[in-house]
Write a sequence for this structure.
């Protein structure tokens, strides 16, 4: 019984070694002619397709990124007067009640933002990644928001502002 198991193992090992030793020479001797009949042929890979075009960007993406960064950071700065903030948020004139509620929140008044990434979604829209800081400490790192080009100015979107207001637990008409 032990002898039979030993012979079986040796036979399996010899068969494996034979496959490993003979496969490369046999492959080198294969016919490169196209197969016919029941022979197996390799299928060429499908042709590569062109990557989809990148999302439309503004005419000057670098200048747009700089403006988005500057405007976002100014919007969230306590040093920015309310009249300036109106100019930095989408539909600012209509959002004055929301801005007032935002400014009256002590945490919001002490908040700042640091833009960490901008991806354009169109020539007039961008996804913005930013860290929201309160007193210099990150409270919402890697936050997501959007910026829109309105009246030739890149602004914090209404949607982003309303999301932050709702996150603070305050209900304000206009959001």
């Amino acid at each position: 019984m032990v002898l039979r198991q030993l012979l079986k193992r040796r036979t399996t090992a010899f068969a494996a070694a034979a496959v490993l030793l003979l496969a490369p020479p046999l492959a080198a001797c294969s016919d490169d002619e196209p197969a016919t009949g029941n022979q197996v042929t390799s299928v060429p890979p499908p042709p590569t397709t062109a990557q989809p075009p990148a999302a439309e960007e503004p005419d000057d993406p670098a200048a747009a990124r700089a403006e988005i960064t500057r405007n976002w950071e100014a919007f969230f700065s306590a040093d920015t007067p309310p009249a300036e903030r109106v100019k930095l948020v989408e539909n600012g004139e209509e959002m004055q009640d929301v801005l007032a509620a935002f400014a009256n929140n002590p945490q919001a008044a002490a908040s700042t933002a640091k833009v960490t990434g901008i991806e354009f979604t169109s020539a007039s829209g961008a996804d913005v990644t930013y860290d929201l800081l309160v007193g210099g400490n990150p409270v919402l790192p890697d936050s997501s928001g959007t910026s829109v080009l309105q009246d030739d100015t890149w602004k914090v979107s209404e949607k982003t502002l309303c999301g932050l207001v709702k996150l603070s637990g305050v209900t304000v008409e206009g959001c």
Remarks:
- The chain has six helices and four strands.
